[in-house]
Specification:
The complex is a heterodimer of chains A (185) and B (360). Chain A has 185 residues and is of the alpha/beta class. Chain A has helices at 2-14, 29-36, 71-74, 99-110, 135-141, 166-181; strands spanning 16-22, 50-57, 60-67, 86-92, 119-125, 153-157. Chain A is 32% helix and 23% strand. Classes of the chains: A alpha/beta (185), B alpha/beta (360).
């Protein structure tokens, strides 16, 4: 208990936030992380395992955990749940066929008690592809309104390819987490 | 005790000459009080002697062991009787009987604890061992005869086939005997458009051709095709391939990613930034890919370099950043084979079995 409170204090001082990026494979998680960090996105292999990026965002330090989404490794997501302040669920808005899969995995992860306090940002990615569903349509399909009322969540359409909508989403996420964790500022 | 008596007598002596209470009646009362006090003290003394005698009885290791063995046997017998009880009458009494056994075990434990100060360490240990054995067998009998519904979180039955959801709800209810709020499990079919994205679906034995002129930001779907030949000429953004059997698929550069699921006996000629292959069997893939292609739950898939030709493909490849051969076609990651040695699920297609350059 003592150690935990010390860790919390240190975290508070450095204004760190731990953000977990999850979603089905091929949804664009790694591309989003690299895009907001201003890195080259032209060669990205499907993630085998996970990547961690530390990004300074406004006055906060974001530790972004980007975890691979292939079916085989989804069972390892749970290893990253601890101490998560923000959860980013990425959806491939053009992959209509697997939206049921996507919905099931999302609702599974939201049952997780360790994530119950985390703010949830849903990124309806690949909006630049013609034929992609809009953020509103995705919200409807994923049945987001049926979510626990205590959850702080937002859905934003975005494109990791053009960068559109990413900042809007992360701005909301960071503000929402900050309002919870750093109330006294 | 004797000391105390001596002191009392002394006090009496010191009191009596100087005390203002010389008067006989007062002195008599005092004496009476004193006598009763003496009596009480001697009673106390007597009872202490008795108690220490009884302690002495138990402080003998041998007699402790006898007593212990006796109680243990009776507890074991009682447990045995309970576990064999089959007639309904004794079953009714089972609960109280088992409670009595549990109390007896607790008493026995107390006895060991009280005697532990004089028992040799070995006896203490062995007695505690036999007590824990008794407790265990009591638990076993308890569990067998009085199964208790333990409180537990249960994973909800998730059935991905929504047609079967009702059935699984019924099963869950009958299995657990607990009513499950059906609206929790029931997943209503989402109402979203499925078929208006461009693509070829549900065809058999056809040649299907699509040219992408100008429109480069669209996605395309191939699904449920059987024995077809597909030619997709030009650039586009994303390709979804689902449930193909014995098909030949030739595709121009895809700027985004390609997702292949459930294919068998097919030939694919693909160029893309990312390629993911799930549930593929006995298929050959000729790839140009900027990142490492991956397979998952697949076997018998073979890989070779991209060899496609159509008018203007050079420009299309260049515009899509796919003009140079990266050699990644053979850097396949098998998510079902996370080891250093080569995965048995895929191989490089031998030169002599590769098809020549295809012109579509």
């Amino acid at each position: 208990m003592g150690l935990l409170s010390i860790i919390r204090k240190i975290k508070r001082k450095e204004k760190e936030m731990r953000i977990l990026m999850v979603g089905l494979d091929n949804s664009g998680k790694t591309t989003i992380v690299l895009r907001i960090n201003g890195e080259d996105t032209s060669v990205i292999s499907p993630t085998l395992g996970f990547n961690i990026k530390t990004i300074n965002y406004q006055k906060y330090t974001l530790n972004i955990w980007d975890v691979g989404g292939q079916r085989t490794i989804r069972s390892y997501w749970r290893n990253y749940f601890e101490q998560t302040d923000g959860l980013v669920w990425v959806v491939d808005s053009s992959d209509v066929r697997r939206l049921d899969d996507c919905k099931m995995e999302l609702h599974n992860i939201l049952k997780e008690e360790r994530l119950s306090g985390a703010s949830l940002l849903i990124l309806a990615n690949k909006q630049d592809i013609h034929g992609a569903l809009t953020a509103e349509e995705i919200a409807k399909v994923l049945n987001l309104d049926a979510m626990d009322k205590t959850r702080h969540w937002k859905i934003t359409g975005c494109s990791a390819y053009t960068g559109e909508g990413l900042l809007e989403g992360f701005d909301w996420l960071v503000q929402d987490i900050a309002a919870r964790i750093y109330v006294l500022d | 005790m004797l000391h105390y008596l001596a002191r009392v007598v002394q006090i009496q002596h010191t009191l009596s000459p100087k005390s203002p209470l010389r008067d006989a009646s007062v002195f008599g009362a005092l004496l009476k009080k004193h006598e009763s006090m003496l009596r009480r003290l001697s009673d106390l003394h007597q009872s202490r002697i008795q108690q220490s005698a009884s302690l002495k009885f138990y402080s003998d290791t041998k007699s402790f062991l006898n007593r212990f063995a006796e109680s243990r046997n009776s507890i074991e017998n009682e447990l045995d009787r309970c576990s064999r009880a089959s007639d309904p009458e004794s079953r009714d009494r089972l609960k109280s009987d088992l409670e009595k056994v549990s109390a007896a075990i607790a008493d026995l434990e107390k006895l060991v604890a009280e005697s532990s100060y004089f028992l040799p360490a070995y006896e203490v240990r062995s007695s505690l061992d036999s007590i824990s054995q008794l407790k265990e067998s009591l638990d076993v009998v308890n569990a067998k005869l009085l199964p208790r519904k333990r409180f537990a979180f249960k994973n909800k039955v998730v059935n991905r086939d929504s047609n079967n959801v009702l059935g699984s709800v019924v099963n869950a209810v009958s299995e657990s005997g607990i009513g499950v709020a059906s609206n929790e499990v029931l997943v209503e079919k989402p109402s979203f458009r499925v078929c208006d994205s461009p693509g070829f679906r549900n065809k058999e034995g056809e040649v299907l051709v699509e040219r992408f002129d100008g429109e480069v930001n669209g996605d395309f779907t191939l699904s449920d095709l059987r024995s077809c030949e597909v030619r997709l000429i030009g650039r586009f953004r994303a390709l979804f391939i689902h449930r193909l059997r014995d098909c030949k698929v030739f595709v121009g550069p895809v700027l985004g990613s390609i997702l292949i699921e459930e294919v068998e006996g097919c030939l694919f000629m693909l160029a893309s930034h990312q390629i993911r292959i799930h549930h593929a069997r006995e298929s050959d893939l000729y790839l140009r890919v900027r990142s490492r292609p991956i397979i998952e739950d697949s076997n018998g898939v073979r890989f070779a370099p991209y060899r496609l030709c159509y008018e203007g493909i050079e420009r299309d490849l260049k515009d899509s950043g796919l003009d140079e051969e990266t050699g990644n076609w053979e850097n396949v990651d098998d998510f079902r084979w996370l080891r250093a040695v080569q995965s048995p699920n895929w191989s490089v297609l031998p030169e002599e079995e590769r098809i020549p350059m295809v012109n579509v």
